[in-house]
Amino acid sequence: MKTARQIAFEILNRIQKDNSYSNLILDTYLDKSELNQVDRAFVSALVYGVTERMITLDYELSRCLKQPLKKLKPQVLTILRIGAYQVLYMDRIPDSAAINESVKLCKNNGASFATGLVNAVLRKASANGLTETDNLSLKYSVPEWLCNLWADDYGNDNALSLLESLSGSVDTVIRINSLKTTKMKLVTLLEKEGFESMDSKLSDDILVVKGTGALHKTKAYLDGLFHVQDTASQLCCSALGVKKGETVLDICAAPGGKSFTLAQHMENSGVIYSMDLYEHRLELIKKGAQRLGITNIKTVVNDGSVYNEGLPMADKILCDVPCAGLGVIRKKPEIRYKDPVEVDKLPKLQYSILCISSKYLKVGGTLVYSTCSLNKAENENIVNQFLNEHKNFESVPVLSCLKRYAEDTDYVTLMPHLHDCDGFFIAGLRKIKEV
Questions:
Q1: Could you give the domains of the chain?
Q2: Choice among 323, 372, 401, 421 that is catalytic
Q3: Could you check whether the bond before residue 255 is cis, i.e. omega within 30 degrees of 0?
């Protein structure tokens, strides 16, 4: 059987090679593994830890090497990162064990030629310890451009708090399926399967779940009694204010979590058109709806940036656009390494989707524009431009009970350190007349 470190090594190599999300690859590997819960937790800690701290780890390793990191074989660099993370961040693991196991990884993965190098570099890293620095990029392992963006957009204090929130474990949050069960029943069922559940301060339909098992393999999950969804996404659905019997469009719906929550708000009545550009992603929505017992969702292949005459006029529209994901770095740490040039291209697409989506809204109807990004260029700037160019729409306050990070505004920007959830932007727009 493969060891925990071997599996972590394979996962990290795969993330680098495929440029994929760490959580998806991690879940795939763990589902196939025969590891016990302790070792599974160790794999997760290594994968997320190395990914989160890569800038810092590479800096510390470069101090111990005579050659540039880019000249190392990929598998050797991965082994060094795994070893350095244990040495520098995992106090419960003896440095000697971390170094010896890293040498074994070399021998077991076609890198025996590097055993001496790995041994020497990690011993030196152990002796040096972490560098003390005031450089935020190095301290929090976040690119300079992102540190500067958050400081410019949200002020130095909020930027620092955001950076501090990025590392460490994140609780799993679920949405209780009110169509099938109650909170009391679900809490009891989850407890029997080894999971502790706690209430959320922000909604009665939210549970924060703690446990080391596979939540998606529980009987409660398989029976459709909940779906996993962060608090921020659930608040986004609440902001739309859907009612029984309405026609609702979920413009960029896959994998379907928000459509599922909206369906529960609507008590499985009316109709929700859940859309995505790709049929295979719509299959995720169909399967999820079937598991949850939801029957008012219709899936539609649709390009949100192109007007579709076949769509009906809607009472409510959720326009949760593709974004940089800078609000969910806690869960997907590799997002921090995105090319800022690619991030800068997003607002044009986002604005196009918002403009097209607004054409499907009835007079008096509400549209919620949202992203899981923390970047004014993708958020406030988009909505402000839309309101300036569409005088038949007005801004409406959303989630007024929630604390704003700065000025008083109709919009809300959710932040991990203020709201204990993903970073998220939510704005409400009402159509007041035809043009």
A1: 4-132 (1.10.940.10), 172-228 (3.30.70.1170), 231-431 (3.40.50.150)
A2: 372
A3: yes
